Amino acid sequence: MAIMVKDLPVDERPRERLLFSGAAALSNTELLAVLLRTGTREKSVLHIAEEVLAHYKDRGLEAIVHMPPAELAAVKGVGKAKAATVLAAVELGRRLSMKAAEHIVVVHDPEDAAHFALPRFRFEQREHFAVMLLDTKNHILGMPDVSVGSLQASVVHPREVFRAAIDYAAAAMILFHNHPSGDPTPSREDIAVTQRLVKAGKIMDIPVLDHIILGRECFLSLKEKGMLS
């Protein structure tokens, strides 16, 4: 017979623990259980939450960000209404993380730039190449996508990169792209593309200040690694 949440001591129930100790005190399973709210006759809500997370263990928790509603709803014990609640909470969290980055309006170092960009690209499943466009005082003018590629690569042409810079009347730029694998280690092609764009920037008088490669929770600055030229 399954142990239901109501059979647990009050201070061990996820919702009560959240209210008493805060959301940060809960595990991923418990947080998901709070969103799912109820289980079934056969399974507790904690058991269903565990099954949802186990279903996506190969892709990690971030797989939920891109999960089609029908796929989540198909998990026994979830259904359409609970799937909608979970995916709405995930999207709200994603938007809050992006909002938190908006206070960075001036770039002083690669960390500032990466913290601005990470919330936007952290969970992307394809490689995106973007340019952060700066004015003469390193205020961020914008960060448009230049190219969206496959799971492993994006195709970048200098013409598209500098067209964006001219459209924004940028004085300088920082290149960005994400590695969906989560590992920001640059490939030989990454370095070659960077060097080609640095040379083009000198000709256009719009310097490329850095190329930052984004993982899921980390980043790598080619400038800091001495790979910019």
UniProtKB/TrEMBL annotation:
Keywords: Hydrolase, Metal-binding, Metalloprotease, Protease, Zinc. Belongs to the UPF0758 family. InterPro entries: MPN, RadC_JAB, UPF0758, UPF0758_CS, UPF0758_N. One of its GO terms (biological process) is proteolysis. This is JAB domain-containing protein. Residues 106-228 form the MPN domain. Signal peptide: none annotated. Gene3D superfamilies: Cytidine Deaminase, domain 2. It comes from the Bacteria. The keyword Hydrolase applies. GO terms for molecular function: metal ion binding; metallopeptidase activity.
